[in-house]
Amino acid sequence: MVWEELRSAVRFPMHLPVVLMIEGEQVSAVTVNMSTNGVLLRVPHAISDNTGLEFLLQVPKEVTLNESTAAIHCAGHVIRSYQEDGSCYVAAVIDEYRFQ
Question: How many beta carbons lie within 10 A of that of residue 43, not counting itself?
Fold first, then answer.
């Protein structure tokens, strides 16, 4: 079964820098796309499935269509990772989030 067939939400391309907290380690990443359930991240190295992660997402005012940015604290876990064209990618489910 193809992963795209399993998606239950529309993905929005968003290329935003984030710092992941993974088991006490900070890892710089960039979002590739996001949905209401999860996020695809480009990361510097592979991250194992089921690994917990947290990150603070700064959404620019051009995206919020507001006068200011929005900060969203997200917590979730990795559901899959893969390599493509020399880059590592991680798909993660967002288990909980809160606006800062």
Answer: 20
Q: What range defines the domain where residue 82 resides? A: 3-99
Q: CA–CA separation, 15 vs 13, rounded Å?
A: 7
Least Cα distance to 22 among 40, 56, 42, 47 occurs for 47
Residues 47-100: tens digit of each pLDDT = 999 999 999 988 777 766 778 788 899 999 999 999 999 999 999 999 999 988
**What CATH number corresponds to the domain at position 10?**
2.40.10.220
Half-sphere exposure at residue 39, Cβ-oriented, CA atoms within 13 angstroms: 27
- The C-alpha atoms of residue 84 and residue 22 are separated, in whole angstroms, by 22
